[in-house]
Amino acid sequence: MPGVMTMMAVAPSPCLSVKPARLCSISSKELLVKKRSSSSAHLLRRSWAARAAATAATATATDPYVEQQMMQRLAEDGWVDEHILPLLTPVEEAWQPADLLPSFASSADEQRSQVAELQARAAGVPDDLLVCLVGNTVTEESLPTYMCMANRVAGGSDDTGRDGHGWARWLRGWTAEENRHGDLLNRYLYLSGRVDMAAVERTVHHLLRAGMRAIPRPTSAYHSLIYGAFQERATFVSHARTAGAAARHGDACLAKICGVIAADERRHEAAYTRASARAFEEDPDGMVRALAAVMRAKVTMPGELMADGRDGRLFDHFSAVAQRSGVYTAADYADMVEHFVRRWKVAELGAGLSSEGRRAQDFVCGLPRKIRRMEELAHDRAAKMEAQSVNFSWVFDRPVRTQ
């Protein structure tokens, strides 16, 4: 109500009234005492608030030095070489994008035939699945951001770009394998003729410039290992579901493409899960508090800041399509939390936990039930809503159901 606010702004001061209020009779000394008292109360409130915030931070904070020392120890004693690096595929044995797409080493007629067959199969892929596929592609194409984030982890970074310790070799090997994913998906989309590649490429450009919000402490080894395990499992689920849906719609090429990518993500998930399990053995109290911190911050997708320059809620709409089509859902998130709680034996952590650690343990172990309950409520609300659609620039502005 701007009119009322304007009247309040221009109203005369009580001290200028014909009948002075009590405020006008207060001496300057009394005013100073009241001001000091008010300021003291304000400072006290701020002190209480700061103390409460510090207490909350302490409950989930872990010792960066302890984390760094653990990472270095695992690299120095050969644990990374023995348990993590074997999960990378040797280059000579790894698939490459050219292995799964039309070959341009063949004759011109055969090339045209292979592309025509790919496009004929792609014609049967529905728009909602294409939106999920493009969203996954955009996420994979932002690999430079993820490598930069991973290279900030204390005790696990590749400082020179050619470090010889296990974590540095894992980071470079992981990046090399992940790099094929975006290349393969991008080339398939281009050859399929089903999407507006300019809009897709613009979205990738925006996302690389925007960066990502991932974990509470990007330099924390504990946070990074936990986030890596969750994120790799989420991408495995998403690509595997897309593969299954593509097969049902008759696109065997896309099904195979998403299937081999999902297999990579499965191996990468195993690496981060295994490293997190070892960290739980080394520092159960620190890790359970780190897990609670990551869960409270929520495991957001690395493509959360994607934009196409038109849709201000592009990621939300992409996520809604993925939820509705069953490619990735809230129920999957609850399943993941439950899986990792069981895999890392969080409920079995015992005497070594601090009071903060026990509270973190209770929170994490009770989280799957809360997520499932929230998902049920959201599903009930969605069932009562009318159908909604959004025009996606990725599929030439065709409307796609989000609700």
Give a structural overview.
The relative contact order is 0.11. Helix 10 (221-248) packs antiparallel against helix 11 and helix 11 packs across helix 12 (284-297). The protein has helices at 2-10, 28-60, 64-76, 79-83, 108-122, 127-141, 143-150, 166-192, 197-210, 221-248, 252-282, 284-297, 314-325, 330-343, 355-384; strands spanning 389-392, 398-401. Strand 1 and strand 2 (398-401) form a beta hairpin. The chain is globular and about 65 Å long. The chain is an all-alpha fold. Mean pLDDT is 87; it is low at 1-59. Strands 1-2 form a two-stranded antiparallel sheet. Homodimer. GO terms for molecular function: metal ion binding; oxidoreductase activity. Belongs to the fatty acid desaturase type 2 family. It holds the Pfam family FA_desaturase_2. Fe cation 2 binds at residues 178, 232, 265, 268.
Topology:
Layout: H1 2-10, H2 28-60, H3 64-76, H4 79-83, H5 108-122, H6 127-141, H7 143-150, H8 166-192, H9 197-210, H10 221-248, H11 252-282, H12 284-297, H13 314-325, H14 330-343, H15 355-384, E1 389-392, E2 398-401
Antiparallel strand pairs: 1-2
Helix pairs in contact: 6-8, 6-9, 6-10, 6-13, 8-11, 10-11, 10-12, 10-14, 11-12, 12-15, 14-15
Subcellular location: Plastid, Chloroplast
Keywords: Chloroplast, Fatty acid biosynthesis, Fatty acid metabolism, Iron, Lipid biosynthesis, Lipid metabolism, Metal-binding, Oxidoreductase, Plastid, Transit peptide
Family: Belongs to the fatty acid desaturase type 2 family.
| Unreliable parts | 1-59
**How are the strands ordered across the major sheet?**
1-2
| Order of helix and strand elements from N to C terminus | HHHHHHHHHHHHHHHEE
Overall strand count: 2
Distance between the termini: 36 Å
Helix content bin: 55-70%
**Shape call:** globular
In terms of DSSP E residues, the strand content is under 5%
Number of helices: 15
The biggest sheet, with number of strands, parallel, antiparallel or mixed sense and barrel status, is: 2 strands, antiparallel
| Category by helix and strand content | mainly alpha
| Mean pLDDT metric | 87
Instruction: Evaluate the radius of gyration.
Output: 27 Å
